Amino acid sequence: MYFKKNSPEQRFIRCAMVSVQEIPKIMQEIMKQSAMTPVILYNLIQNDEQFQNIMPTAEQNVYGLQSLLKDGYTKLHVTLIFNIVRYYSNIFIPTPKQGWDSDPNLEDAGIGDDAQRMRKMMNKIRTTPSKALSKREFEEFFTRIYAIGARIDEYFKLKSCVTSFQKDIYDMLLRPIDKAMEEKILEEIVCLTANTTAPITMRFPGIKGDPEIASLVNTLQDQINNRSLPIKLDGAAVGSLIIFLSVENNVFKSDIETREVLSSFIDHFIKVTNLQQWLCQPKNIVEVVITNGKFYIFYLAA
């Protein structure tokens, strides 16, 4: 197929184009086709203290909340949209069948499931540090998003709205990419602007303070860090088990994204270290302390 002629960098650019152009358009159209008007949504958010805790007003404005009053949903940033549709569950789209913290099953094909797929696909592209994709990664991305595009078009058709998202996605396979377009797309990838990191600490209180475990974690540091996650292990120490990490600041743009990235890292960390064998009930939890004062607890599977 045509895309096999692309370099790894060009493959990344094409996936990035979908992430920064088509996925936001799809989510904006979902908002537009709902019964909720932009002005009513604006007033709802302004008076919702709990939503302010999830995404502060200053952050909402960065992502275009004020544009609701003048431009409707057309200029609302996709990050804010995903926060809205998740928080105001079932107002815009049904909650994904497996929830917002898990991957949909293969047979889950509702609009909420596809929104979750697009959110995870977009975030993966955003946080790909090498800005290059293998043929397998590229084929997997476009196979999934092409199928999603078809289902999205059918979804809007049922609402008497004609869209061509599947065709637009396919056209991105063939569209010539010049240097100016490449630079523009790269500028729109959020993680490129996040060159600084913040230190965080994870503690596993369900693990006894055995120096052997901390030593093992330090030995496996390269394997733990050998993954496209915006978190890097700096070292481990005893006191239960304590690990020290560096996290790209763009991870903290929203509480939802922070939790998702931390959860992904914890799953990866436990798999690489085979940590499950040392965990003991009833303290199968991970405590995360971030330098900005936030504190998270994650519950591990038994």
Describe the structure.
- There is one protein chain.
- The chain has 13 helices and 5 strands.
- α1 (8-32) packs antiparallel against α7, α1 packs antiparallel against α9 and α7 packs antiparallel against α8.
- The chain is of the alpha+beta class and 302 residues long.
- β2 (231-238) and β3 (241-248) form a beta hairpin.
- The chain has helices at residues 8-32, 38-46, 49-54, 57-62, 68-71, 78-87, 111-126, 135-157, 165-174, 179-187, 211-219, 221-225, 255-273, and strands spanning 197-204, 231-238, 241-248, 285-290, 295-299.
- The N and C termini lie far apart (45 Å).
- Residues 191-196 have low confidence and may be disordered.
- It has a 5-stranded antiparallel β-sheet with strand order 2-3-1-4-5.
- The longest helix has 25 residues, at 8-32.
- The radius of gyration is 21 Å and the shape is globular.
What's the total count of β strands? 5
Helix content, binned percent: 40-55%
Number of helices: 13
How much is the radius of gyration in Å?
A: 21 Å
